Amino acid sequence: MSRNALRALVLSHVPFEDLGSLQPVLEQRGFTIETADAATADFPLPQAAGCDLLVVLGGPVGVYESEAYPFLTGEIECIRQRLLAKRPVLGVCLGAQLMAAALGARVYPGQHGAEIGWAPIQFSGTGAPPAWFAPLVTGELPVFHWHGDTFDLPAGATPLAKTELYQNQAFMLGDSAMALQLHPEVTARGLERWYVGHAAELSHRGIAVPELRAAGKQHAPALAAAAKVFWEGWLDSIL
User: Fold this and answer.
1) Dist. CA 44–CA 214, nearest whole Å
2) pTM for this structure?
3) 3-238 sits in which CATH class?
4) Is the pLDDT at 3 greater than 90, yes or no?
């Protein structure tokens, strides 16, 4: 298949949590990108089986809240079928939690509270990290986090990253599926929409937007540079 024919399906939960720095990398590789609103999608989605890459983005709901948000049941099954077929999948934050649930792992509120802001991650696997993951786990690069839930490592998955608060921050399954609790895709400009969209949560938690913005302006450029190398390397490894 030529690069010009590549197709990515993006499952979105809130408009402001988008592909960020991943979008131009996909476009440069010739991907056509279709975005589906998961909350109103008519699962199962036939295009989810046939696309070259399924990307499941973040959002403010919990995997375990299917009674309040029934679409989650269909979305988890959609992801499960994609994983069973061993087709490329990327999950970010809620997307990573949905992948964990699709693989039978427990997803639950984190016992150490919400992790919101900038902090480095550490490689949690054995030996050296995959070459494509190395740009994110230098030990000195702050990456962006925004989650209150966590998950157990699914059976058969390979751990990739941890932080001081939470052991399971990223994992891969086989050679084509990757789950990231962290947010390597964010940009300083894009985060401005997050501060508005998550205003109620920030106020509830007593987190000051000016402080988040200042940290974003300081750390986002280095993250964007590392993320570009990371995205390119991971895509090279799966396609």
Assistant:
1) 42
2) 0.96
3) alpha beta
4) no
